[in-house]
# Entry
Amino acid sequence: MTGSPGAAPSEAPLDVQVLQTAASLENLAVASYTSAAGMAFVTEGSAGLRGLIARNLAHHTAHARAFNQAVVKAGGAQQHAADARYAAPLGRILAETKDPSSLTGLLNELEGIIAQTCTRYASLASGGALRSMFVNVASVEAQHSAELLIVRSLLGGGHPEPGASVANTRAIPAAAGTAGIPQAVYPTADASAINEGALR
Amino acid sequence: MSAPSRRAFTAGVTGLCVGMALDACSSHAPPSPYSGQLRTVALAAALENQAVSAYQTVDAALRAGKFGPAIPALAAFVRSAMAHHVQHAATWNAILRAAHKPTIGGAPLSGNAQLLSDLGSASEVGAVVSAIQHLEIQAAQTYTAAISGLTGSGPAISAAATIAPVEAMHAAALGYAFNGQSAVAEFVGTGSAISVTALTV
# Structure
């Protein structure tokens, strides 16, 4: 079978493209959290932050695996590379990150990009199971954001670790109570293009 | 009238009464105005109204000092989350209105009265936080499950996709800031999702 001369290469089906892009973003998160876990101020700092980083890293590893399993079912090839749009600039910023506040801010941005992308793709995917999968993962990344935002809001204020006791809960400033729930409707403006991480 | 005839007459009247009673019963339960995807939308609106009522109960308890000295972060969280749920209810009801269906004004859900009673009688802040955290995760799981059954590219899919992560954030923030432990799992799951059969209209 031959294509017509000069014809553009055929694009992969939509489901394959969005799943490969989602996998590439999860791979980016795995690489970023792996770098974060090795930073001196993390290894020698708060056990709470260290625990969040390790836990989120495990979640993103699982999400990458789930998207790659789904892409095979959809007839495509697995995507094991990190999203090319963000990988280099994010790596440079991470290398210059020297404190927990900057790190949690950066990781929150990354979580937001993935969550917004999955939220957007939930409306684009063709099957019910895929839509549910995208909402499921978007919700977990949004939860990562919520916790990172709370941690960041409490950094440097001399506040106790949240939730350790009712007394600690009373001591948390009001602003920390709403830090983790910044919006009523989850945005999609920062969602990645559907073919951003698609294999070519 | 012979004896058999009287028995037949009596049996006939009894049957007529039973039939009338069944008719009377069914007239108390008119068919639901919601079917198909709109039944899912109505369920979502009811869940959001239920969340608003739950937060109103907690807000009143906090203002009354029921849990002791002030908890400023929880009070701020409750007011903010309550406003989110008001907005979510309006979103779901707008979809019903556009489909020329009645909007959901309360929480017509089996178990709603028990939930509000439990919240109203709770004396420990930890129990209240756990209860509303459960409501939030239930809502996130319900939308995660429901979106698989929604078809087309209509507003219901967009609503489920953009509201589920917000409910999930509410649940995470409650667990992390107020309950002493992170409740975030690898996947949100659907095990606690509410079925449309819980809707009583």
Summary: The first helix of chain B runs from residue 3 to 28. Chain B has two domains: 1-30, 37-198.
